[in-house]
Amino acid sequence: MAVDVEAFRKEVYNVVASIPFGKVLSYGQIAWLVGCPNHSRLVGRMLHGAAESEGLPCHRVVNNVGRLAPGWIKQRHLLEEEGVTFRPNGCVDMKKWQWKLDE
């Protein structure tokens, strides 16, 4: 399936902008929400650098087990400021902090 990259980017940004304070979503969940469930890596590429340029809360996006973005040291601090806690392995506790879309 070919993806309209600009439309995909817009939809990804809309989802990320709507993630509530103190909650997280995974790249895969965002891909699923925008109708492209096999494009979680593309979600990551769309978000790389978008936090500053677009004013998006990209720090609220983690991988499916709660692992933070590699090399983005500030991400953990931003999440902790929102009250998000981490498991001993350094990953976000997804059972506790994952945004349940029916909330």
UniProtKB/TrEMBL annotation:
<keyword id="KW-0489">Methyltransferase</keyword>
<keyword id="KW-0808">Transferase</keyword>
<keyword id="KW-0227">DNA damage</keyword>
<dbReference type="Pfam" id="PF01035">
    <property type="entry name" value="DNA_binding_1"/>
</dbReference>
<dbReference type="InterPro" id="IPR036217">
    <property type="entry name" value="MethylDNA_cys_MeTrfase_DNAb"/>
</dbReference>
<feature type="domain" description="Methylated-DNA-[protein]-cysteine S-methyltransferase DNA binding">
    <location>
        <begin position="7"/>
        <end position="84"/>
    </location>
</feature>
<keyword id="KW-0234">DNA repair</keyword>
<dbReference type="InterPro" id="IPR001497">
    <property type="entry name" value="MethylDNA_cys_MeTrfase_AS"/>
</dbReference>
<dbReference type="InterPro" id="IPR052520">
    <property type="entry name" value="ATL_DNA_repair"/>
</dbReference>
<dbReference type="GO" id="GO:0003908">
    <property type="term" value="F:methylated-DNA-[protein]-cysteine S-methyltransferase activity"/>
</dbReference>
<protein>
    <submittedName>
        <fullName>Cysteine methyltransferase</fullName>
    </submittedName>
</protein>
<dbReference type="GO" id="GO:0006281">
    <property type="term" value="P:DNA repair"/>
</dbReference>
<dbReference type="InterPro" id="IPR036388">
    <property type="entry name" value="WH-like_DNA-bd_sf"/>
</dbReference>
<dbReference type="GO" id="GO:0032259">
    <property type="term" value="P:methylation"/>
</dbReference>
<dbReference type="InterPro" id="IPR014048">
    <property type="entry name" value="MethylDNA_cys_MeTrfase_DNA-bd"/>
</dbReference>
